[in-house]
Amino acid sequence: MNENSGKIADWLRRPEVLLFAMAAAVPISFATWRTLLNNFAVERANFDGAEMGILQSIREIPGFMAFAVVFILLFLKEQRLAYLSLIALGIGTALTGFYPSAVGLYFTTVIMSIGFHYYETVQTSLALQWIDKEKAPETLGRIVAVGSAVSLGMYGLIWVGTELLALDYVWLYLITGGGSALLAVFCWFFYPIYPERVAQNKSLVLRKRYWLYYALTFMSGARRQIFIVFAAFMMVEKFEYTVSAVAGLYLINALINIKLAPMIGRFIARWGEQKALICEYIGLILVFTTYAFVEDPFWAAVIYVVDHLFFAMAIAIKTYFQKIADPADIASTAGVAFTINHIAAVFLPAGLGIVWLTAPEMVFLIGAGMACISLVLSFNVPSRPVPGGEVRLGHRGAKKQSASTEVPAE
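The structure corresponding to this sequence follows.
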């Protein structure tokens, strides 16, 4: 019995299980924050489309500053930074309901966002360091599935809290934000600090041979804003979806992702990153074009669910980088990539928020144009990406890359 208990404890302390545990901590807060945001902003803070765009731009500023992670890592281990980030995410979420005003919502959003984005940066780095290349697509898919499963539970709790218990926003935010912070504290004390397989560069690394990865990452950030900001806002403003209805959409998304995300991971492992990205971007062109002209709330909901399914395809960008990267670059490049991902995210929501006031359909047609650019870029991903074979056309690195911590000229 004791031997079995020891084996279970050893299994629970494996690095990939920690990744699953931390992935579970995020949606406890973020699924609640995201599900309630549009209704809370409209009902309590009287937001319009322009103010929502400003809020989302502010939310993305910490993501834009994610490159600063490499400097924090000079005196703090990545694993500890992940825990502190999850605690900040929980605290920011817990405070949200207490500040139903524009300034208050901006303030709590910044705290929440610092935690969320710094965690996501470090989580990407740790996952790519701890998981073997052969297992990475499926394991990353399972991480997505864990997040979706927890999100599913949160959407159910939100529905119970709003429809059956009639809980105020204050309690919904406080309970869930506190849950994320407590789970992070548990991980802090339960898990050991895992050693680095390869010593990570502690300076900013920008390599010309990663240019296609940077471009795909930039366009991914722009695409994400269309879904997170304007597709969700459309459901509330145009089709008058309630909190429970929005939670129902997220619940459907989570249910599908639990099964689909690991399958997508296996698809990427078998067929390669290029085919996965091409499928994603063709689908997004159709989705965004449909958003622009949909008038029926049912079909809007269908497209919203389909749109969400494509997010799991983003695993392909991460595994593409893992295959072409110098292992010592992973931590630094994770921060740089998050900054690149959020360049558009900082400016796009505010700019498109102004467009939304006069021509909401143009926001989604612009999104379709972005998906077209991403599709063109995806054709340049090799079928077997490796260092020195990062792209089909354009600049490539040498076959053998130096592990130097200096930013190379290349």
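Residues 398 and 407 are 15 Å apart (CA to CA).
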